[in-house]
Amino acid sequence: MGSFSLHASCLAKHNLPWSNGCSQNLNSLRIPALQQRGPGFLSRKASKILAFYGLKSPPYALDALEPYMSKRLLETHWGEHHHGYVEGLNKQLEKNDILYSYTLDELVKVTYNNGNPLPEFNNAAQVWNHDFFWESMQPGGGGMPELGLLQQIEKDFGSFTNFKEKFIEASLSLFGSGWVWLVLKRQEKRLEVVKTSNAVNPIAWDDIPLMSLDTWEHAYYQDYKHDRGKYVNAFMNHLVSWHVVTARIIRAEAFVNLGEPKIPVA
Ligand SMILES: [Fe+2]
Question: Which PROSITE patterns does this entry report, sorted A to Z (predicted)?
Fold first, then answer.
């Protein structure tokens, strides 16, 4: 996952990352993912082509989720907050161009730095999180998951009602700002509800996210004031895209053998 847009003005003004200063920077970071890239990585960067991350649009019009999420809220949440994370990340990368050429997934994992986040982590993760969140919703969403996904939820949570209660309870009990996720635990081969604070994203410890809910106050205050419960229920009953979640778990099955029931591809 990740989006790039070329920014011509940066081609001329940046110091090259293989200068002495940046080599020291690279050594001090001691990032395994960088070291695994080998010498070819640095020579590829010698092309001097640098990239900025772009602001991805939600996959629907800004008024398409009304009345459950207003155009006014999306204009602020996407147009200002999400946009701000993109701009903040690009500004940081201007100063630390050793992190160029990563996909957004890689950037989130590398800057998480095993729980000692680098300065770029918050903006990188918030860009990832918001791209994923917009795609977790659709006009006319909510309702019940499709059959294969429903069976997997019933297998791991006992029933869809249990899952829903657990997800809502996690959303309401999350202190402060953060995110609630339905993830596939890669090692345990099961679904789980997890909550993370601030920008933290479970791909940092190799969970596979399937859906997410933004519980930062900026995600609902304009429509629901302090009533997070009303917002969470609107998300579950009218916004979450089970089609997208199904597509994500089908993709995840390429990496994790869930056994039976098998999620049908079509
Ligand atoms: Fe947000």
Answer: SOD_MN (PS00088)
Question: pLDDT (tens digit, 9 = 90+) per residue, 88-129?
Answer: 999 998 887 688 778 999 999 999 999 999 999 999 999 999
Distance CA 52, CA 245 (A): 28
Q: Residue 214 is which amino acid?
A: D
How far does residue 235's CA lie from ligand 1's centre (Å)?
A: 14
Instruction: Tell me the residue type at 19.
Output: S
Distance from Cα 48 to the centre of ligand 1, integer Å:
33
pTM above 0.90, yes or no: no
How many Cα neighbours within 13 Å face the side chain of 130?
27
Nearest to 210 by CA among 236, 243, 239: 243
Q: How far is the CA of 199 from the centre of ligand 1 (A)?
A: 9
State the Cα–Cα distance between residues 185 and 37, nearest whole angstrom. 27
Give φ, ψ of 188 to 5 degrees: -75, -15
Report cis status (omega within 30 of 0) of the bond before 261. Answer: yes
Between the CA of 218 and the centroid of ligand 1 the distance, in Å, is: 6
Q: Scan for tokens 């939600």, then name that residue.
A: 58
Distance 200 CA to ligand 1 centre (A): 12
Taking the centre of ligand 1 as the mean of its atom positions, its distance from the CA of residue 82, in whole angstroms, is: 7
* Distance from Cα 34 to the centre of ligand 1, integer Å: 29
- The top-scoring range by mean pLDDT among 34-38, 143-147, 228-232 is 228-232
Phi first, then psi: give them for residue 4, nearest 5 degrees: -125, 150
